Amino acid sequence: MAFIAYFLARADVLVYFSVFIVLFIFWINGIKKSTAKMPPGPMPLPVIGNLHLVDLERPHESLMQLSEKYGEIFTLHFGHKKKVILAGYEIIKEALVTQADDFGERAIAPIFEVFSHGLGITFSNGEAWKSMRRFTVSTLRDFGMGKKSVEGRVQDELMPLIESFKSHNAKPFNTHMLINSAVSNVICSIIFGKRFEYDDPTFQKLINLLDESIKLVGTPKVMLYNYYPFLGSLLGLHKKVKQNIQDLKSFISQCSMKRRLDLDANDITGYIDAYLLKQEQESSKAETYFNENNLLTCVRDIFSAGTETTATTIHWGILLMMKYPEIQKKVQDEIKTHIKPRQLPTFEDRKKMPYTDAVIHEIQRFGNILPLNLSRSTPNDVYFRGYFIPKGTEVMPFLTSILYDKTQWKTPYDFNPNNFLDEDGKFVRNDAFMPFSVGKRACAGQSLAKMELFLFFTGLLQAFTFCLPPGVSRDDLNLKPDVGFLLVPAPYMTCAKPNY
């Protein structure tokens, strides 16, 4: 007791002891940080970093090769910018699900900052992102996403799409604009409360703006702009992307102004109406995220995501059915067994059609339309798999490495529906099937996309057999995608021969 009394009486001793404890904690943390380094990777060169190792037209192919050499986690230098690449199912699941908070922010590339400014759903962070995503998911559900009610919207769009295909009288044509218009109309009915005619010039302009922007964002010039923003005025392409996005926002703004004039709280017809109503409800708050700029950016995000990814998957589907007519025939046989002629498919039919379900899943896996995913950023210093990843580091959960993971798929590089079937022909789920990403930042509209893919693909194969144009052989079909942010099939022609 005397010792304790003496110790407490000596204030200077307490001060020295406290300082010692603080220094000891810093020393321990220093030891931890000094022994935990960033993931390894190739030696960067001055100025360009590791850009000489990456094909900017097909970066996913280069990253697959690098992952073979450096493993599941490695660091690449894109100019002065460091990126940590995560490759393979196990490590990506661990990062995005098990340690979701450590990899929860969105990394914002300069090209996306140009037109998002931290707003919307896709490229926002923090409370702004949580608020917008929560509202969007809730509102989309109210308008039937993932429910029976949205099925009618897809079926209503399937009928004019079939009629448009029939108008070509089994002669060669490019399906691109028709499919993009049909898919876009489903999301338009949810956003704007209405659909557009396929030949509407304003609607066609919107579809073309989306197409062009998606392609430009993935070009080498724009990717170089992301790594060297000061080259922007020299490269120039980012200005075209910015103009396209501005044109889209102008259209959305006009729609929102019209809806504001006619807004009726008892007759909410679409996402814009719901947003405007929420904006009114929050108008008395000192701080709110429900402002005009966020409306325009959210609608643009939903419109873009709800059109391009699903439409691109269907384009791959038709191309692959021409490439593998024996698979097309098996799908059509299953359709005939479970759906009556001229009866539109329902999402409930999927449960009875394992082969068709497997083919659609395999189209998504093989098509690999978002190969690089959208990058994450570490909100704090992160220790992961024995490595140290500093706060603010861009982390790429590389989707191609999951969809083509040799440890997860029977034939990762071949189109093979058996990747989703057991020996008895029953559908088998695979946790490594992640075309919509996974975790808190997974695609908010994936339930709608799944329904659209089944109804459009099944409905089209029920109505038509897709054949090669005269003079074209299966070997002539090009399965190498165009250059772009999404892996879109190179333009092709098809003959849609009616089945009845």
Structure description:
This protein is α+β, with helices and mostly antiparallel strands and 500 residues long. It is 52% helix and 7% strand. It has 18 helices and 9 strands. The protein has helices spanning 2-9, 11-35, 59-70, 89-98, 110-116, 126-142, 148-166, 176-191, 201-217, 220-227, 232-235, 237-261, 271-281, 292-323, 325-338, 354-367, 400-403, 446-463, and strands at 73-78, 81-87, 105-106, 376-377, 382-384, 387-389, 394-398, 464-467, 495-498. It has a 5-stranded mixed β-sheet with strand order 1-2-7-4-3, with helices on both faces. The protein has a two-stranded antiparallel ribbon with strand order 5-6. It has a two-stranded antiparallel sheet with strand order 8-9. Strand 5 and strand 6 form a beta hairpin. Helix 12 crosses helix 14 (292-323) and helix 14 packs across helix 15 (325-338). The radius of gyration is 26 Å and the shape is globular. The termini are far apart. Residues 1-9 and 13-35 have low confidence and may be disordered.
